TrEMBL record:
Residues 286-343 form the PDZ domain. Coiled coil: none annotated. InterPro entries: Cofac_haem-bd_dom (IPR007314), PDZ (IPR001478), PDZ_6 (IPR041489), PDZ_sf (IPR036034). This is PDZ domain-containing protein. Keywords: Signal. PROSITE patterns: PDZ.
């Protein structure tokens, strides 16, 4: 190691929630920083050369994201390139794919698959659901520079077994040797409880404990994957939803428990968020981003996690606050048709949603508990940059 530096239904809704958690803002006088700068949360502007030289000495560097933000992925690519210039012995760990997708990642880096073949072989659209176009520049960076890509997630099915049945009920070889997680820090439990309480079907204390257990499985699985890569001596960079990283609560805490202490968390920070400073302790450093130009905004997202079904596609998770939740879609629903077109695989629905214009309705034919119904998914209009749709 290098030196260290100073569920039932609610379980499905754990998917994606932490990546978009709102952050408490510090109350103090603060002038808006210019975009394109590194800052220490609660402190001063950082010199990028000195920061990157320090980061290059770590075992693990964690880059947070909101999954559907194009500018976050561009920042990740910029940061990866800077780190790679100092530490070409690099591995990139991906939250986006479970360990079963590792052969597809290896084949991609080796140049054996084109984009379409990789997306099919990795089951990207059913495993992750977010537009692969957001991530392809990073995947091409890895392929161009022969940087290994490592799948560090586990499937929702395994996550549910571990959270619901307990670790002893799942054989070690079926959980890829991942050990039980360290207990959640008190502040992390408080944050997770607040997220859980926002859901209308949150349920009782038992439901909350299952929700927290699912998040800890998620954190531990990713931390274990990063620790495995770091043990080989490479600089391991993890691309992970920011809620798993903030305040060193999630994945960083599990890395500490695994004995990987030389890690650092970096996060993007949007200047438009009230021009408040990033809260002290949020991360080692944040990079300020300007407001996303409209032309770079990502395509529409329904906000569901999909699996192939015998008929249509099955929903196994609904993101809180999403178009899907507002439309009334639920975990367990089978989507048979969208805009009158029959669906045979998750990619069919994903492609239709991504082509959906802002401010329009998408009719869905859904089967729930053996009964068919029509649900209208209403996609919001996009802001024109002046606060009006």
């Amino acid at each position: 190691m290098r030196r260290s530096f100073a569920l039932p239904r609610v379980l499905g809704h754990a998917l994606g929630l932490l990546a978009s958690l709102s952050l408490p803002m510090a109350v103090q006088a603060y002038s808006c920083p210019p975009p394109g700068q590194w800052f220490q949360p609660g402190g001063e502007r950082l010199d990028s050369a000195a920061l990157f030289a320090e980061l290059a000495e770590r075992d693990v560097v964690l880059l947070g994201e909101q999954h559907d933000r194009m500018d976050h992925h561009r920042w990740q690519l910029h940061t990866l390139a800077g780190l790679h210039a100092l530490r070409p012995d690099m591995v990139i760990g991906l939250e986006m794919l479970p360990r079963e997708a590792q052969p597809a990642l290896d084949a991609w880096v080796a140049g054996e698959l084109d984009e379409a073949e990789f997306l099919a072989a990795s089951h990207w659209r059913s495993a992750w659901g977010f537009d692969p176009g957001l991530y392809l520049p990073i995947l091409h960076f890895a392929r161009l520079n022969q940087v290994p890509l490592k799948a560090i997630n586990v499937t929702p099915e395994l996550r549910g077994r571990l959270a619901g049945n307990g670790w002893e009920a799942v054989p070690e070889d079926e959980r890829f040797g991942i050990t039980a997680p360290a207990e959640a820090l008190p502040d992390y439990r408080e944050r997770l409880a607040a997220v859980h309480a926002q859901h209308p079907s949150a349920g009782d204390e038992e439901s909350l404990e299952r929700f927290i257990a699912a998040q800890l499985v998620w954190d531990r699985a990713m931390a274990a994957g990063l620790a495995e890569a770091a043990a080989e001596g490479a600089l391991t960079v993890g691309l992970i939803g920011q809620g798993h990283l903030q305040y060193e609560h999630g994945v960083p805490h599990q890395l500490d428990d695994l004995g990987v202490e030389a890690h650092a968390t970096l996060l993007p920070w949007a200047v438009e968020e009230g021009c408040e400073p990033p809260p002290e302790g949020l991360a080692q450093a944040v990079f300020t981003l300007a407001e996303t130009p409209r032309a770079l905004q990502p395509p529409m997202q329904l906000g569901v996690y999909l699996m192939p079904g015998e008929r249509g596609v099955a929903i196994h998770g609904v993101v809180e606050g999403s178009v899907a939740e507002q439309a009334g879609l639920e975990e367990g629903d089978i989507v048979l048709r969208a805009a009158g077109e029959a669906l045979t695989r998750p990619a069919d629905l994903t492609h239709l949603v991504q082509r959906q214009p802002p401010g329009t309705l998408l009719p869905l034919e859904v089967e729930r508990n053996g009964e068919r119904r029509e649900i209208l998914a209403r996609f919001p209009p996009r802001d024109d940059g002046n606060g009006t749709p």
